[in-house]
Fold this sequence. Notes:
Layout: E1 28-29, E2 49-54, E3 62-68, E4 85-89, E5 100-104, E6 111-115, E7 160-164, H1 169-190, E8 204-208, E9 267-272, E10 275-280, E11 285-288
Parallel strand pairs: 1-3, 7-8
Antiparallel strand pairs: 2-3, 4-5, 5-6, 9-10, 10-11
Amino acid sequence: GEIDCDEYGRILVRFHWDLANAYSMRCRVSQNWAGAGWGGMVIPRIGMEVLVEFLEGDPDKPVVVGNVFNGKNDAPYPLPAHKTKAVWRSKTHKGEGFNEISFEDENGREKVYMHAQRDHEIHVEHDRSKRVDRNQLESVGSNKTIEVGNNHHEVIGGNMTLMVGPNKLQSFVTQKFKALTSALGDMAGKLGLPDMLNMGEGNLIIGVAKNKAETVMLSSTEVVGAGKAVTVGGGMQTIVGGIANTTIGIGAYEEVGHNKAVIVGKQYEIVVGDSKVLMQENGTISITGNKILIDGKELVRITGKTVKVN
């Protein structure tokens, strides 16, 4: 409905005994609270039925004290079907939408409902606490931005799944997660530790439909308590600008389906106990050990400008 008021929120009313186009003087509207720049303000709209009292019985001092529904203006929800619902619903000015806060008080169906026709803003000057005893569902139709000025801390008692991409990614990532657990089990078996993995609660699943980029400006540390498996469908490249150090406490297993090339610029050294193989950039290859066994099933060929056998 249309809204007609002055700077004090006063409205014009038409009494039942008035002529068709006759209106009263401007009437103040009783509010639930009225302070100096604070309080409540709801302006009755054109077409509403209101209750009017006259201060001290003076017909020149009318005050609107309330609103009532009638046969023309129905309640927001059909009655008596929704008699347990308390509701406050507005109406979009010159539109068909509405804002609403409602309370359902039927035993076993209690609910607080809030509807914003367009935007919903919350501004908290100090702290805000929220507690959900069971489940929470959050759905955002477009974009979401979270900005934290200081620290961000999350505790997840069970598992966490993060999907970036279409909904069909869910089943794909689930399959990959099962394959991961299988691969970790195989790796544990090869290392002789079949019982080191127990895939229960406490899992984090991340699925990305296309690309993932991660940049760390300083240091990055990753600690894995049990096993770790990396599966790459295509190529994989690792670039280390300084020194790379890998320490394996028990065993290591590597399998290459076709070719493998290792290129070292200065020196390459393999040490196993008292045995050592040393390759240098000048072409010198040194093999040192207590016993050196060379077994060629068909042929052993040694070629050199000078061959010395001690």
